[in-house]
């Protein structure tokens, strides 16, 4: 496939994913208002199938382009990252579609961030952060490992501090018992 055609396929898949997210949001709004959402469910199911087909086409064309050396390995990695992001998006949409009613991702993220963020209504519109932009798949994986190692070290230090405080609390309790 020519680069403009590949890009058009990718853009079409992104557009379908965006439309699915909007339909799921609309379906959930209908359900909260007690309205019927059966027609939307049929449309969402059809769009999800269409998105799966587009994803398969993107993966196949990328595999062919890399295996026939039509593109460089770096470009292949970049495109693979885009396809992986779209695949993650597809899985999230599928899970959101199957979980009718509440929107668990919004609820869960609001719990973790201290409330629903105002102004950001669609998570798919968020841009990639500067620290990860341009990194290859293996670079992202190494960065993720490094972050996890730092978090583990922080948790170990926190565990040590809490253990020390527990021991101090027990000693204070023992001292109070002796004084009483």
Automatic annotation (TrEMBL):
Record keyword Coiled coil present: yes
Recorded superkingdom: Eukaryota
Coiled coil: 41-68
InterPro entries in the record: T_SNARE_dom (IPR000727)
Domain T-SNARE coiled-coil homology: 145-180
Keywords of this entry: Coiled coil
Protein name: STX8 protein
Organism encoding this protein: Ceyx cyanopectus (Indigo-banded kingfisher)
Gene designation: Stx8
């Amino acid at each position: 496939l020519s680069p403009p055609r590949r890009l058009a396929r990718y853009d079409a898949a992104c557009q379908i994913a965006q439309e699915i997210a909007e339909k799921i949001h609309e379906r959930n709004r209908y359900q909260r208002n007690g309205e019927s959402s059966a027609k939307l469910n049929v449309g969402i199911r059809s769009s999800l199938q269409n998105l799966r087909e587009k994803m398969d086409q993107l993966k196949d064309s990328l595999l062919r382009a890399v295996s026939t050396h039509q593109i460089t390995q770096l470009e292949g990695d970049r495109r693979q990252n885009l396809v992986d992001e779209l695949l993650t998006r597809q899985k999230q949409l599928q899970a959101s579609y199957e979980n009718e009613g509440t929107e668990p991702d919004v609820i869960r993220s609001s719990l973790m961030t201290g409330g629903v963020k105002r102004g950001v209504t669609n998570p798919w519109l968020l841009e990639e952060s500067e620290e990860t932009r341009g990194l290859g798949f293996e670079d992202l994986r190494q960065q993720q490992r490094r972050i996890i190692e730092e978090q583990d070290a922080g948790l170990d230090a926190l565990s040590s501090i809490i253990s020390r405080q527990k021991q101090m609390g027990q000693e204070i309790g023992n001292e109070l018992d002796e004084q009483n």
